[in-house]
What we know:
Elements: H1 4-21, H2 29-40, E1 46-53, H3 61-79, E2 83-90, H4 128-142, E3 148-151, H5 152-157, H6 162-169, H7 172-180, E4 195-196, E5 206-211, E6 216-221, E7 226-231, E8 238-239, H8 242-253, E9 255-261, H9 270-280, E10 288-292
Parallel strand pairs: 1-2, 1-9, 2-3, 9-10
Antiparallel strand pairs: 4-8, 5-6, 6-7
Amino acid sequence: xxxxxxxxxxxxxxxxxxxxxxxxxxxxxxxxxxxxxxxxxxxxxxxxxxxxxxxxxxxxxxxxxxxxxxxxxxxxxxxxxxxxxxxxxxxxxxxxxxxxxxxxxxxxxxxxxxxxxxxxxxxxxxxxxxxxxxxxxxxxxxxxxxxxxxxxxxxxxxxxxxxxxxxxxxxxxxxxxxxxxxxxxxxxxxxxxxxxxxxxxxxxxxxxxxxxxxxxxxxxxxxxxxxxxxxxxxxxxxxxxxxxxxxxxxxxxxxxxxxxxxxxxxxxxxxxxxxxxxxxxxxxxxxxxxxxxxxxxxx
Length: 299
């Protein structure tokens, strides 16, 4: 987690940012990125800079690398009197994939549920996700970062993305073609860019069988052994896979800048497919992007 040493580093770089920003030609990396944002999106009144993570465990220094990258670009834009929003998405509607070593083995029964629906193993917060979210939020507040936290579980369950999900579902052939450029095992015809959390058991061991072209899908749940129907405009228990989810949210939030780790940045990665999807499905531009490497402390 963030410690006093990191706070010193942040203070130092903020000082360097301020000093170097006064030069005619921007030399500091975040100033250069800010200029790129302004040049690409010169018609926008507000520049939305985004970061996020799935709260599946403690947020460590490697995760903090993304936060500080975004924070520097936000501060550079503010230095040039630009209006900004720094949004941080808690991807707490992601599935609970596996039981960490420090969590009781009995939590295996929750695999397949959204992280927001898994109980806190220590019983001090409302959910597994919130347990890890609140610790980082409290630390970042101490560091005076102006961040707007967004819980994606609330966004999905409130139906905020219903129309954009419908758009993706009706563009599934286009999306499948984009993804299959980079897949060794192509997505077959009849594949849907959507995963359903079962309305009965809450888990995602499901397979979509039919879609009506509007908001209703029919699916089979392996856990329940039954078929069900859900209207995701009225009862939103669906979520696109990450490669569709990410560009969908770029469009929804009108994101101008977002960094990403090298795992999202290789050829054919989620950044590449996201750029194509946001352009071809949502008729929008991908945000300015900056790759960062993994942090590997020694000693």
